[in-house]
Design goal:
Number of strands of chain A: 11
Radius of gyration of chain B: 13 Å
Shape of chain B: globular
Helix content of chain B: under 10%
Number of strands of chain B: 11
Structural class of chain B: mainly beta
Order of helices and strands of chain B: EEEEEEEEEEE
Largest interface: A-B, 25 and 25 residues
Number of helices of chain B: 0
Strand content of chain A: over 45%
Radius of gyration of chain A: 13 Å
Helix content of chain A: under 10%
Largest sheet of chain A: 6 strands, mixed
Distance between the termini of chain A: 41 Å
Oligomer: heterodimer
Structural class of chain A: mainly beta
Chain lengths: 111, 116
């Protein structure tokens, strides 16, 4: 099966700074990597995703990079704002049925 | 178009009781996934169902847990004889087809189960 590791588990940044969250996966068969944002007590929501045939994808202040050789992908948030504070989860789609999720990163943006 | 609905939002059970969690997918979605989230952990896949069929239950504990998605009505995750370790948030997600990079899954608000 797949194994997804996510680091760091907690991250504090000053407003306006950048935040980077990294995930590694174990199975080269995984081909789709979404990132979810979960605010306290709320449902996970997809914020950005990347397919295995793409190395980088950007959407305004959010970007994701994928290194298939090294089996790792990262979330980059630039110009962070207090409303970016949440728990972020990476995931890898394995066998087409199952998402394997990382353990989450609690991001705090300090005003 | 209402999103994925789950009820109840909070459920308290005593050890040994049964818990029934309901998930109504988005309109037009016939694929449902159930996940469990333990405190301060990520989501763990439990089961994938399509209308009237269990497609993949490899993440489901072998005993006490069952799931169904009948032709009519919501998907049900049933936990019999609950134990304290079952306390968690249970999320369902739905999609129009099997999830892929082209078919997003949409999550419900979750049911927070507390076993006393």
């Amino acid at each position: 099966g797949e194994n997804v590791e996510q680091h760091p588990s907690t991250l504090s940044v000053q407003e306006g700074d950048s935040a980077v969250i990294k995930c590694t996966y174990s199975d080269s068969a995984s081909n789709y990597f979404p990132w979810y944002k979960q605010e306290l007590g709320k449902r996970p929501q997809l914020i950005i995703d990347i397919r295995s045939n793409v190395g980088e994808k950007k959407d305004q202040r959010i970007a994701v990079t994928l290194n298939k050789t090294a089996k790792h992908f990262s979330l980059h948030i630039t110009e962070t704002q207090p409303e970016d504070s949440a728990v972020y989860f990476c995931a890898a789609l394995y066998t087409g049925n199952q998402f394997y999720f990382g353990t989450g990163t609690s991001l705090t943006v300090i005003p | 178009n209402a999103g994925v609905m789950q009820n109840p939002r909070h459920l308290v059970r005593r050890r040994g009781q049964e818990a029934r969690l309901r998930c109504s997918p988005m309109k037009g979605h016939s694929h449902v996934y159930w996940y469990r989230q333990l405190p301060e952990e990520g989501l763990k896949f439990m089961v994938y169902l399509q209308k009237e069929n269990i497609i993949d239950e490899s993440g489901m504990p072998k005993e006490r847990f069952s799931a169904e998605f009948p032709k009519e009505g919501p998907s049900i995750l049933r936990i019999q004889q609950v134990v304290r370790g079952d306390s968690a948030a249970y999320f369902c997600a739905s999609s129009t087809a099997r999830v892929s990079s082209y078919n997003e899954q949409f999550f419900g608000p979750g049911t927070r189960l507390t076993v006393l």
